[in-house]
Design goal:
With 1226 residues, this protein is α/β, with parallel strands linked by helices. It contains 44 helices and 35 strands. Strand 1, helix 11 (213-231) and strand 2 form a beta-alpha-beta unit. Helix 26 (629-639) crosses helix 27, helix 32 (801-813) crosses helix 33 and helix 40 runs antiparallel to helix 41 (1107-1119). The longest helix is centred in the middle third of the chain and has 23 residues, at 644-666.
Length: 1226
C-alpha cells in the first residue's frame, strides 16, 4: 500500500520536490512510477485481459458514435483529415463571403475525397464524404466531364452560397458532436437524455483565454450565470450526484502568468473565490481546469488561497484537474492531499492524461530547457496515469477521485485497483468514449460523469480542433478501437511491460532533447525559464550581486586597457537616472592607430590557426557567456534598459552565434583565409548579441577585428571582449575602441588597413559609411550592413484574433519597440478590424511599463533622452491630428515612452522608421490584398514581414510577392534564432548576407580573389586612354534604355535555364551552372517550418574590358534567375542568339563610364571585371545613389552574391496544434 504523506507541514517540502521535477529525467521518473503502481506481472496480465474484453465488447455490442467513426475515417495520417481540422478551426469565425470561399477552396479542392467514399460504416459520414468530393471537384480547376461538369455548372448558376452554406453546415454538425449546447440552457436540456441513464454532467464554458480584462469579466459573468442555472437543478444532498462546472483560471485574468503573480493572487483569487462560494451555495462540483506546465506552480498558489477561505469549510465540491503526462503529477497529488489534510477538507481530483502536449514539447525546445515538462511517449503517460490512480485510491479519505479517460486499459486498471466502486467516478468527454462506458456500465455499477463543453459555434473552434488532434492520431485509443485491423490485445497491451522492455531508451527517439535540437556539433544555448519561481529566485539572487556594481570601459588595445581620461563619461541607467552603472573613456587617436596596426600585423598568425582551433575558441566564448550570465543580465538591464526576458534572450542569441559560427567554420577548408582587418560597428539595441555575432563571425573566418561598440552601451561590450580574450582569442586579434561615431568610427572607416566592415544600425548611417569606405578602402573590402525597416504585418479575416493580438503586442512593444525587426505597420482586413483593434487596445491595458529590473515589467525605457524626445514628439504630432487610438501612461521618472497605436491610411503615410513602441494601423478590403503588398514593397525596405491567415494558397501568393528578408506566418515577427532563422533584409534594409546563416562567413573570407584580369589593367580608370577609346557615347541614356527594355522581360515559367545557358553561353563562360540547391530547411523547434531560400536580385549589369570575363558574370547572373545587361566590347554579337531565343538579356558594346551608375534607375547589382581604380570609381558612383546599397560583384564564382536570401518561418501549429508531431507520437 502506497501511504501518502501525512503531516500538514510538508506542503513546502512537496512544492520544492515538485519544482525540482519540472524537467526530470524521464527514465528515473518512470522507475519511480512503476514502483508506485505496485502491480505484479499477474496484476498487469489481468488488467490487459480485462481491457481486451472491453474492446471486444465495444466492437461487438456497441455502436461507435458518429464522431468516433469520423475520426477513424479522417485521422491525422490523412491529408484530408488535417485539411478538415484546419477548415473547422477557422471557417465559422470568418465574416466575409470572399474569404470563406477562398478558405473552402484552399482546404477542400485539393483533397482526395474519393478513396474515403463508402469506407465508413456511417451513412452520414459517407454522405458527407460524397458532398466533400463533389464540392472539391466543383471548386477545383480542371476539365472533368459528366456529373462534375454538370454540378459545377449548377453551382455557377446558383452562386457560391450553395457551397458556402453546405460546408458551413458540415462544420457546425462536426462541432455539435463535441459541444452539448450553444448556451447553458440548451446544454441542460440536452443532458436529460443521458442523465436518465445514470450519467451526471460537468459543464465547461468554452472560450479562449482572456486577452483583456473585459474578456475576463465577460467570462466571469458567464460562469456566474451558469452556476446560477445549474443550482436550480442541483437537487441531491450528495454533491457527487449533482452537476458540476469546470473553470479555466486563464479565462478570469488576462495575464495569468508567473511574472504577474502579485496581481494574479490579488485579482484572480478574488474572482475565483466568488465563484467557488456561489458553487458551494448551490452544492455543485467546482473543478479548476489544468493549464500549461509553466502555470502549474502559480495555479497551486491560487488553489491554496481560494481553498483556505473559511467560508468554504464543510464543502466537498472543490476540485482540481491533474495531468498525468507531467512528471510532477505525483507530487501535485501529494501536495493536494497534504493541503486537504491541513485544512481538514475533502476535495475532488480529476485525473486526465493531459492536453496541449505538443505545445509543451515546442516550448521546451524554444526556451532551451534542460528537458521536457511532459513525457515524450504516450505509453509513458499511460504508466503515469496508472501510478497516479494508485495514489488516488490511497487518498480517498481526503480526495474523491475522478478518472477521466477513454482508454480501455486505463479503465481496466482503475477497476482493478479499486475496492469500492462507490468511492470514485469515471469521466468522459461529450461525444467521446460513449461506447466504452456503455460496455463498462453493463458490467460494473460505477459512477460516470460527462464533461460537456458549452458555447456558440465561434467559441467551440479551439476546443473542437484539440479533440480532433488528440483523438485523430493513429496511436489514440479512440482511433484504434473502431479500427478492426488492430487486434484487441494490441490495444489493451500493458504499458508498464512496454516501458520495462525499453530499458534506458524510454524517451522518444523522434524528439531530441532541447539541448540537442541542432544535432551534433552545436549545443543549444542554455535557457532560463523565468516562469518558474525557483529559477527566478536563483537569478534574482545572482543578479543582485551586480545591482550596485560600477563597471569601467576604455580602449582595449592588445589586451591592455587605456587609462581613464578626463573625457570619461558617466553611464546612467535609462530607467533610473540616479543609478550610475559605470564609466567609459573614449578611445584616443593613438589608441585607434595602434589597434589597427597591431591587428594588421596579427592577421597572419590568427588566420593561420586551424578552423578547428578557431571553433574551439568560439565555443569557449559561448560557455563563458553562460557562466557569466547573471552579470550580463544586470548589465543589460541597467545599461541598455532590457527586461529580464529580453536579457535572457540576448545572452542566448550571443551564445548561439558563438556555437553556430564554430560549427560553420569547421566545415571550411584549412586553406581558407580572411580578408584582413575587419571593423565591426554594432548597435545599442543588441549590445551583446549583435556585437558578439559580428566579431565572432569575422574571427571565425580568420580575420582580426577592430570593434567599435555603440556610444550608449560600451560597458557590455568591454565585458564581452574581456571574456573573448579569456576564451583564447588572441589579444592582438581583437581590439575594442569605444567612442562616438565622429571621433572614433570615422577614423576607423578611413584607415587604409581596414579590409572589411560589418555594420548594424540605421539605413542613413549605413549609406554614409558606404560613401566613406567606397573611396577610402580597397575595392575588394566587403561591406555587410544590417539596417532598419518599415516592417508590416497583414491580417486577414481567417486569422484567430487572440493569436493576432498576442503576436502584435510582442512584435510592436517588446523591447520598447527598439528592434529593427519590430512591427511598425499593421494592416487588418476591414471585416474583422473592429474586433481585433478593440482586443488589441484592451490587451495594451495589461502591459506594465517601468523598471526592467522587476520581473512584472513588460516594457522598459528607450535608450536615451534624444530617442525619447524624438519618439514622443512624433506621437504628440499625431495626437494633435487626432490619429492616436491609444497611448499608454508612463512613469514620471526615467526615459519611458508609452506604447502607442496610430491610425493611418497605409504604410505610405510613414515618413520614416520610428524606433520605439509605436504601431500604425490601417484596414483593407478583401480584394485589396495584392495592392497592399505592392504598396509595402514600394517603400523600398525589406526586413521583416508578418502574415496571419489560414488560407495556404494565400500564404504562397503573398510570400512570393513580398520583398522582405524574413517572413513570418501566423506568429510574431521578432526574435530570429541563429541558424534557424538567419536574419537580414534587402533593399534599404540591408546588403546581405544574413547573420547566423550559411553564407555570412564566406563574405568575410578571401575566396579566389577578383575574377582574373591582366596586370596592365590594374590602374585603368575612367580617365585612362584605353578606356576612353571604348566608351559608349551617351552612356547613361543608352544604359537606361536597355534597362527599361528589360523591365518587361523575364524567364519563361518552367524554362530550362541550364539548358538554354549552356546552349548559348556555356562554351564562352568556361564553367557549369551552379547546381547547389538554394533551399535549406533549417533545424529548429517542432511545430515550425523554417526555410531559407534565395531569389534573383533582379537586373544585373555585367561589364568588363574583355568579353570572356563579362560573359562569365552574365552566365552566372542568368543561371541564378536574374536579368542581365551585358556591357563588353562585342556584347551584341555574343548575345544575339540569346536575345533571339527570348532570354532576359540586353547588350551594349563598349564600356560604360562609372559616373553613369550614380544616376541610372532599375538596376540591382553590378558585376565587373576591371582594375582597382575602375572598381573604386564604380563603387563611389553607386554610393552616391539614394535608397538601397547596391553590391559590386567581382567574383563570378561567388554564386551567392548574385541572389538575395529570404527566410520563411511558419508556425504550423497555429490552426490548433502540431498535427505532424501528434500523428507520429509513439
Amino acid at each position: 500500500m502506497n501511504t501518502p504523506l501525512q503531516t500538514a507541514d510538508t506542503l513546502q517540502t512537496i512544492r520544492t520536490q515538485l519544482n525540482a521535477h519540472y524537467c526530470a529525467n524521464e527514465y528515473d521518473v518512470l522507475q519511480t512510477l512503476i514502483a508506485t503502481a505496485n502491480l505484479s506481472e499477474d496484476d498487469r496480465k489481468a488488467i490487459s485481459l480485462s481491457a481486451a474484453d472491453l474492446v471486444e465488447q465495444v466492437r461487438s455490442q456497441s455502436a461507435p458514435t458518429m464522431m468516433e467513426k469520423f475520426l477513424a475515417e479522417y485521422g491525422l495520417s490523412t491529408k484530408e483529415g488535417v485539411a478538415l481540422m484546419c477548415l473547422a478551426e477557422a471557417l465559422l469565425r470568418v465574416p466575409d463571403e470572399d474569404t470563406i470561399d477562398a478558405l473552402i477552396h484552399d482546404k477542400v479542392a485539393t483533397g482526395k475525397w474519393g478513396p474515403h467514399l463508402g469506407q465508413s460504416p456511417s451513412s452520414l459520414i459517407n454522405t458527407a464524404t460524397w458532398a466533400l468530393m463533389i464540392t472539391g471537384k466543383v471548386i477545383a480547376p480542371g476539365s472533368d466531364k459528366g456529373v462534375t461538369t454538370a454540378v459545377r455548372g449548377m453551382v455557377k448558376r446558383l452562386g457560391e452560397p450553395v457551397v458556402r452554406t453546405a460546408v458551413a453546415q458540415a462544420m457546425k454538425e462536426l462541432g455539435r458532436q463535441f459541444v452539448l449546447g450553444r448556451n447553458i440552457d440548451e446544454a441542460i436540456s440536452k443532458a436529460k437524455k443521458m442523465e436518465k441513464k445514470g450519467y451526471t454532467y460537468s459543464y465547461d464554458m468554452l472560450g479562449e483565454g482572456a486577452k483583456t480584462d473585459s474578456d475576463a469579466l465577460r467570462y466571469l459573468t458567464a460562469y456566474a450565470t451558469a452556476i446560477t442555472q445549474l443550482t436550480a437543478i442541483s437537487t441531491s444532498t450528495d454533491i457527487r450526484k449533482n452537476p458540476g462546472i469546470s473553470l479555466k483560471l486563464s479565462a478570469l485574468y488576462a495575464r495569468y502568468e508567473y511574472a504577474k503573480a502579485d496581481q494574479v493572487l490579488d485579482v484572480l483569487v478574488s474572482r475565483t473565490t466568488s465563484l467557488a462560494l456561489q458553487a458551494k451555495a448551490g452544492n455543485l462540483g467546482f473543478n479548476i481546469d489544468a493549464e500549461e506546465a509553466d502555470r502549474l506552480d502559480l495555479s497551486l498558489d491560487v488553489i491554496e488561497a481560494v481553498l483556505r477561505h473559511p467560508a468554504l469549510e464543510g464543502w466537498d465540491g472543490f476540485g482540481v484537474v491533474v495531468q498525468a503526462f507531467c512528471p510532477r503529477a505525483p507530487f501535485v497529488l501529494d501536495w493536494l492531499y497534504s493541503l486537504a489534510q491541513k485544512l481538514d477538507r475533502k476535495i475532488m481530483v480529476r485525473l486526465v492524461k493531459g492536453a496541449y502536449w505538443d505545445a509543451e514539447i515546442k516550448k521546451a525546445q524554444v526556451l532551451g530547457l534542460e528537458g521536457y515538462p511532459v513525457f515524450t511517449r504516450k505509453v509513458n503517460s499511460d504508466v503515469s496515469y496508472i501510478a497516479c490512480a494508485r495514489k488516488l485510491m490511497d487518498m480517498r479519505d481526503r480526495i474523491y477521485p475522478q478518472f477521466a479517460t477513454h482508454n480501455a486499459h486505463s479503465v481496466a486498471a482503475v477497476l482493478h485497483l479499486s475496492d469500492d466502486l462507490d468511492s470514485f467516478e469515471f469521466q468522459r468527454l461529450h461525444g467521446m468514449g460513449e461506447s466504452l462506458y456503455e460496455a463498462v456500465l453493463e458490467q460494473q455499477p460505477v459512477h460516470c460523469r460527462i464533461y460537456a463543453p458549452v458555447g456558440a459555434h465561434k467559441d467551440l473552434l479551439a476546443y473542437l480542433v484539440r479533440r480532433l488532434l488528440e483523438n485523430g492520431a493513429n496511436s489514440s485509443f479512440v482511433n484504434q478501437i473502431v479500427d478492426p485491423k488492430i487486434k484487441a490485445a494490441v490495444i489493451a497491451a500493458d504499458p508498464i511491460g512496454r516501458v520495462i522492455m525499453m530499458g534506458a531508451n524510454v524517451s522518444s527517439a523522434i524528439i531530441p532533447a532541447p539541448k540537442d535540437l541542432y544535432g551534433s556539433g552545436r549545443i543549444n544555448s542554455k535557457g532560463w525559464d523565468i516562469t518558474r519561481s525557483d529559477v527566478v529566485s536563483a537569478l534574482h539572487r545572482d543578479i543582485a550581486a551586480f545591482d550596485s556594481h560600477k563597471w569601467q570601459a576604455s580602449a582595449l588595445v592588445d589586451g591592455v586597457a587605456s587609462a581613464m581620461t578626463h573625457e570619461t563619461l558617466d553611464m546612467m541607467n535609462p530607467s533610473d537616472r540616479t543609478d550610475l552603472v559605470g564609466h567609459v573613456s573614449a578611445a584616443q587617436p593613438n589608441d585607434i592607430q595602434q589597434a589597427i596596426q597591431i591587428a594588421a600585423s596579427a592577421g597572419g598568425l590568427w588566420g593561420k590557426e586551424t578552423p578547428a582551433h578557431r571553433a574551439d575558441c568560439l565555443r569557449k566564448v559561448g560557455d563563458l557567456y553562460e557562466q557569466h550570465a547573471p552579470e550580463f543580465m544586470a548589465l543589460l538591464m541597467r545599461e541598455a534598459g532590457k527586461t529580464l526576458a529580453d536579457a535572457v534572450g540576448e545572452i542566448r542569441e550571443a551564445v548561439d552565434f558563438a556555437r553556430y559560427y564554430a560549427k560553420e567554420i569547421e566545415g571550411q577548408s584549412a586553406a581558407s583565409i580572411g580578408v584582413g582587418v575587419v571593423a565591426c560597428i554594432s548597435p545599442w539595441n543588441f549590445p551583446l548579441a549583435i556585437f558578439s555575432g559580428q566579431i565572432l563571425a569575422a574571427l571565425a573566418a580568420g580575420n582580426t577585428v577592430i570593434a567599435k561598440p555603440a556610444d550608449q552601451t560600451p560597458l557590455v561590450a568591454y565585458r564581452a571582449v574581456q571574456l573573448m580574450h579569456e576564451a583564447g582569442i588572441p589579444v592582438s586579434a581583437l581590439h575594442l575602441l569605444p567612442g562616438s561615431g565622429a571621433a572614433v568610427g570615422e577614423v576607423i572607416m578611413k584607415h587604409p588597413s581596414i579590409a572589411g566592415v560589418c555594420f548594424t544600425g540605421s539605413t542613413l548611417t549605413a549609406q554614409r559609411i558606404n560613401r566613406v569606405i567606397s573611396s577610402t578602402l580597397s575595392s575588394s573590402a566587403p561591406f555587410i550592413a544590417e539596417t532598419g525597416g518599415l516592417n508590416a504585418m497583414i491580417v486577414d479575416s481567417t486569422a484567430l484574433p487572440e493569436q493576432v493580438v498576442r503576436d502584435v503586442i510582442a512584435s510592436s512593444f517588446q523591447s520598447a519597440g527598439q528592434r529593427c525587426s519590430a512591427l511598425r505597420m499593421l494592416y487588418i482586413q476591414e471585416d474583422v478590424s473592429a474586433e481585433i483593434i478593440h482586443m488589441l487596445l484592451g490587451a495594451m491595458d495589461e502591459l506594465t511599463i517601468g523598471n526592467p529590473r522587476l520581473l512584472q515589467t513588460d516594457v522598459g525605457p528607450v535608450i536615451d533622452e534624444a530617442a525619447r524626445a524624438n519618439i514622443q514628439s512624433y506621437i504628440d504630432r499625431h495626437f494633435a491630428e487626432g490619429r492616436v487610438l491609444k497611448s499608454m501612461p508612463v512613469p514620471s521618472e526615467g526615459l519611458f515612452v508609452g506604447p502607442t497605436v496610430i491610425r493611418v491610411k497605409g504604410i505610405e503615410s510613414l515618413e520614416r522608421e520610428i524606433f520605439g513602441p509605436v504601431l500604425h494601423i490601417a484596414t483593407f478590403k478583401a480584394d485589396e490584398l495584392d495592392h497592399v503588398v505592392s504598396t509595402i514593397n514600394a517603400q523600398g525596405y525589406g526586413l521583416t514581414f508578418g502574415l496571419h491567415t489560414r488560407v495556404d494558397t494565400r500564404v504562397d501568393r503573398v510570400i512570393n510577392a513580398v520583398h522582405a528578408g524574413n517572413i513570418y506566418v501566423n506568429r510574431n515577427q521578432i526574435g530570429a534564432v541563429v541558424g534557424t532563422q538567419p536574419f537580414g533584409g534587402e533593399g534599404m534594409s540591408g546588403t546581405g548576407p544574413k547573420a547566423g546563416g550559411p553564407h555570412y562567413l564566406k563574405r568575410l573570407m578571401a575566396l579566389d580573389g577578383h575574377t582574373a584580369y591582366s596586370a596592365e589593367m590594374e590602374n585603368l580608370s575612367d580617365e585612362t586612354p584605353q578606356f576612353i577609346s571604348q566608351y559608349v557615347q551617351d552612356s547613361q541614356a543608352i544604359l537606361q534604355s536597355e534597362i527599361d527594355a528589360l523591365q518587361g522581360k523575364s524567364w519563361a515559367v518552367g524554362a530550362d535555364r541550364a539548358g538554354l545557358l549552356k546552349k548559348h553561353l556555356g562554351e564562352l563562360a568556361g564553367f557549369e551552372v551552379n547546381n547547389e540547391d538554394p533551399t535549406h530547411v533549417m533545424p529548429g523547434p517542432t511545430g515550425e517550418l523554417n526555410r531559407l531560400t534565395v531569389v534573383p536580385r533582379g537586373i544585373i549589369v555585367c561589364t568588363g574590358v574583355t568579353d570572356r570575363q563579362a560573359i562569365a558574370f552574365a552566365y552566372r547572373a542568368l543561371s541564378e534567375g536574374n536579368k542581365v545587361v551585358l556591357v563588353s566590347p562585342n556584347a551584341t554579337k555574343l548575345m544575339a542568339s540569346s536575345i533571339k531565343d527570348g532570354l532576359p538579356v540586353a547588350a551594349i558594346d563598349g564600356i560604360v563610364q562609372c559616373r553613369c551608375f550614380s544616376q541610372v534607375k532599375g538596376i540591382d547589382a553590378v558585376a565587373v571585371q576591371a582594375g582597382e581604380s575602375y572598381i573604386k570609381l564604380l563603387k563611389e558612383a553607386l554610393a552616391k545613389r539614394e535608397r538601397a546599397i547596391l553590391p559590386v560583384i567581382t567574383n563570378a564564382n561567388a554564386w551567392e552574391r548574385f541572389v538575395i536570401e529570404r527566410h520563411l518561418c511558419i508556425d504550423t501549429t497555429a490552426a490548433g496544434g502540431n498535427a505532424t508531431l501528434i500523428a507520429s507520437v509513439e
